[in-house]
Specification:
alpha/beta, 7-stranded mixed beta sheet, 5-stranded mixed beta sheet
Length: 447
């Protein structure tokens, strides 16, 4: 598709994604969901400066088409999913570019069941955006929509999160890195209410510091914080709080693969790992699969993107799935990745097992992994070039059963991602560079 990728419509604010785009998205959604009744649509946003601008543009488009708009204000993406599906809204919109820098933004549309919008509706939105004539009628008189402050929706989501904790967090020293993003309005309040001794950073959003040297994309800051404060555990979220990475008591990173392993083993012990299977993506580490084999847990692999993980889970009735990046889905409690929920589940594992995460993860050996992003003019041509494919196969054959190579296109940026896993960092570097050198020789790389 032209505008919508794997995670909504994303681009640099007022460059790749501008206010007219947002206005027309609102116009279409207000009309589409309001053809036989007055549509009710909820909007949440992260802390980027441009999020306020896009909120106004979307609201104008929606109300002009006759929809009533309910504003959650600054809130995590999963809260939009929760409120939409539990309070009978026609759809929800989250304004965020997730882990991207502040100057990017995005529009994620969520359907009435709390899932990402169907591709066929996204295609219709794109047709409307590019249409020369505005074929959607304007609402008039009493049919014009209005906007409503709906902060209570976020508060209900916070209450739901707190209700999931099975025990008190009293005397547990917890560090949070809220990335100067959406979780700053939710996470610390949840942990404080559950009794934790909570220490939080990334709590001072100013519109341009979201994800800047903080959060799950810059985990080293939380690692230092956990060691400095002698904390029991730390959690880092991304800009819209649908991801979570953790740091154990030794300051070591617990990434999405480790979270899947820890929670998968725990759920299996409790008899709650449905069909004894975890859903992963092709980015998951080979070490995770070896550890799951040893633990007697089956797994499936999907394309990168939590929507693919979720689709597999729904189709097969699985209870746990996720991505190495920290999008983790617990289908018993949510239909999308939820960073704060993930941190609560890890707390349950730690408290129930009466052990530190550093002890619980000993059965998992993560192989060194190197991922390099290469900016290219044509992603598909670069990926499918026969010489590039030959270089990848040569590297894969050399690694055998002790590593792998992965080439894939970014779903949101003009990038080819080249990844290697091997027994040493040196081998990873060698094989990734061997493929990038071919991309360079074939003149696919920009700059």
């Amino acid at each position: 598709m032209k505008y919508f990728g794997t995670d909504g419509f994303r681009g640099e604010a007022n460059a790749g994604l501008n206010v007219m785009h947002a206005y027309k998205v609102g116009r279409f959604l207000g009309w589409y969901y309001g053809q036989d009744h007055k549509a009710r649509i909820i909007i949440g946003k992260d802390t980027r400066r441009s999020s306020y601008m896009f909120e106004d543009a979307l609201s104008a488009g929606l109300t002009a088409s006759g929809a009533d708009v309910y504003l959650l204000h600054v809130t995590p993406t999963p809260s939009v999913s929760y409120v939409v599906r539990t309070e009978q809204f026609d759809c929800g919109i989250m304004i965020s570019a997730s882990h991207n820098p502040y100057y990017d933004n995005g529009i994620k549309v969520i359907n009435s069941n709390g899932y990402k919008l169907e591709a066929e509706i996204e295609e219709k939105i794109e047709e409307y955006i590019d249409s020369r004539e505005d074929t959607i009628p304007f609402a008039v008189k009493e049919n014009i929509g209005c906007t409503v402050d709906y902060s209570i929706g976020r508060h209900r989501y916070i209450g739901y999160l707190m209700s999931l904790a099975t025990r008190s967090f009293k005397n547990i020293r917890v560090g949070l890195d809220c990335a100067n993003g959406s979780s700053y309005s939710v996470a610390k309040g949840v942990f404080d209410a559950l009794g934790a001794k909570t220490y939080a950073i990334g709590m001072e959003p100013d519109g341009i510091n979201i994800n800047r040297n903080c959060g799950s994309t810059h985990i080293s800051r939380l690692q230092e914080f956990v060691k400095e404060k002698n904390l029991d555990i730390g959690f880092a979220y991304d800009g819209d709080a649908d991801r979570c990475l953790a740091v154990d008591d030794n300051g070591e990173v617990i990434d999405g693969d480790a979270i899947l392993y820890l929670c998968g083993c725990y759920l299996k012990e409790k008899g709650e790992l449905d069909n004894n299977t975890i859903v992963t993506t092709v980015m998951s580490n080979i070490g995770l699969y070896k550890a799951l084999d040893k633990a007697g847990i089956a797994y499936e692999k999907t394309a990168v993107g939590d929507k693919y993980v979720n689709a597999n889970m729904m189709e097969n009735g699985y209870s746990l799935g996720g991505e190495q990046s920290g999008h983790i889905i617990f289908s018993k409690y949510a239909v999308t990745g939820d960073g704060v929920l993930t941190s609560l589940m890890l707390m349950e594992v730690m408290l129930e097992k009466k052990a530190k995460l550093s002890e619980l993860k000993k059965g998992l050996k993560i192989y060194p992994q190197l991922l390099k992003n290469v900016k290219v003019a044509d992603k598909a041509a670069a990926i499918n070039d026969k010489d590039v494919q030959a270089a990848a196969k040569k590297a894969e054959d050399a690694l055998g059963n002790n590593g792998r190579i992965l080439l894939r296109e970014s779903g949101t940026e003009p990038l080819v991602r080249v990844m290697a896993e091997a027994e040493t960092h040196e081998l990873c570097e060698k094989y990734v560079n061997s493929i990038i050198n071919v991309l360079q020789e074939k003149k696919y790389i920009l700059g």
